[in-house]
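Below is how a single chain appears once it has passed through the pipeline. First comes the sequence as given, then the structure the pipeline wrote out for it. We keep one example in the README because the format questions we get most often are answered faster by looking than by reading.
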Amino acid sequence: IPVDLVTASASGLDPHISVAAALWQLPRIAGQRRLAESEIASLVTEHTEGRQWGVLGEPRVNVLTLNLALDKLARH
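Resulting structure:
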């Protein structure tokens, strides 16, 4: 289990998770949303942001924008 899934950010409001955490949840999210894992994996890639200023931190997934894209996909 990716560590950021079992720990919280200092504020508890961080809209990002690691790419590993997003991919680890693919089967569960695909089942809940009745979508193919490949569709969700594509959206994870689209909503992955690089390192801050190109050097700080690790690539991360913006969960807010990813969820909005998943909602939009479900409406179509």
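The helical segments are 19-24, 26-33, 37-46, 63-75.

See the next section for the split statistics.
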